[in-house]
Design goal:
heterodimer; A: alpha+beta; two-stranded antiparallel ribbon; 8 strands; B: about 210 residues; alpha+beta; 6 helices; 4 strands
Chain lengths: ~140, ~210
């Protein structure tokens, strides 16, 4: 799955996702990706977020919506992402998932749930402060 | 006097560092995407640099991943379902208007995010699913084609040869952890606690 958040110079925010979902799923199964607030969410008055991982679990918590709402209250994007992951951890400690967050001032961050075989999350960032789109890594919590 | 000068220099340095720190933490525009999908990021960024809108950047960035079949988890020829078919889900959201366009369980159309954009722009709906979404896509000018590849076929065969493991059924007969289907509800249900270890991985995710 790819999840993407783009914030323009004036703060205009857009987000999106695209996926072929879980391998060997039961026909008809749909994950979090096409659900607003789950796979991604954008609000130009706050920022945007996108989630990736086990959609069957993550879609129950609307993590992207929750992250944007945290950022609306002034929470730093990295912390917003971490808070979302923590909320899911309480119910599903071993879920596979990560969230990326960006606010309308251009700050961004990411967080993921640490499980065996998934201890770091890689994501891409493009910004005027970087000479080219750059891969970044966060340690999972 | 020297101490005062030192204190002034230290204070100045602190202010400079703080300003630099703030600047490095935030600048617009910004585009971020999940996973190390470099070409998708480059495409989105290029669209912005060429004057495209934020929605254009998202659509073209995610669309690049659909073409590249990023990690096998995006686009055609990946993640076959229990019947061996690849189906696609995609969504795009405009944070100015809160409009959303989405498709789910899309079959036989490769450019899922493109169809999602058309749902947003040419309908008053939010989410179209299944074969009906495919018909909508065709009306919008997208080609109807096979999403199966040699790779997705071999993934499917391997899964069948491994007694359909892993799979997502539970509390059914025959035992879904050992046998392929078709499954049905047992006469007497003995519910097992939901599996706590996720079957998903970096190559199998939403």
């Amino acid at each position: 799955t790819i999840g993407m958040v783009v914030i323009g110079e004036s703060g205009t925010t857009a987000s999106g996702t695209s996926t072929n979902g879980a391998a060997h799923k039961i026909p008809g199964r749909v994950g979090d990706s096409p659900i607003a607030g789950a796979g991604s969410y954008a609000d130009s008055t706050a920022g945007g977020a996108a989630a990736t991982g086990d959609g069957d679990i993550m879609m129950r918590f609307l993590p992207s919506y929750q992250a944007v709402e945290y950022m609306r209250t002034g929470t730093d994007p990295t912390v917003a992402c971490q808070k979302v992951i923590s909320r899911i951890q309480k119910y599903a400690p071993k879920f596979f998932g990560a969230v990326i967050c960006a606010n309308t001032t251009g700050s961004y961050g990411a967080a993921c749930n640490k499980i065996p075989g998934f201890t770091q999350f890689h994501f891409m960032v493009s910004s005027p402060l970087l000479s080219q789109p750059t891969e970044q890594v966060v340690d999972c919590i | 006097g020297r101490r005062r000068r030192r204190r002034m220099v230290a204070l100045l340095l602190l202010v400079v560092l703080q300003v630099a720190g703030a600047a490095s933490a935030a600048a617009l525009p910004v585009a971020i995407n999940t996973w190390a999908f470099r070409k998708a990021a480059e495409t989105a960024w290029r669209v912005l640099q060429l004057g495209g809108s934020e929605l254009d950047a998202v659509e073209k960035g995610c669309g690049q991943c659909e073409i590249d079949q990023c990690d096998g988890s995006v686009g055609y020829g990946g993640s076959p379902d229990e019947s061996g078919e690849t189906t696609l889900d995609a969504m795009i959201m405009n944070g100015n208007t809160m409009e959303v366009g989405a498709v789910a369980d899309l079959r036989h159309v490769k450019n899922a995010i493109g169809v999602a954009r058309k749902v947003m722009e040419y309908t008053k709906h939010t989410l179209l699913v299944g074969e009906s979404a495919s018909l909508f896509a065709v009306r919008m000018g997208f080609p109807y084609e096979d999403l199966t590849t040699q790779k997705s076929l071999s993934m499917y065969s391997r899964w069948l040869n491994q007694s359909c493991q892993p799979n997502y059924w539970k509390n059914v007969v025959p035992d879904s952890s050992k046998s392929c289907g078709p499954y049905k509800r047992p006469q007497k249900v003995t519910y097992k606690e939901e599996q706590t270890i996720s079957q998903r991985s970096v190559h199998n995710h939403d």
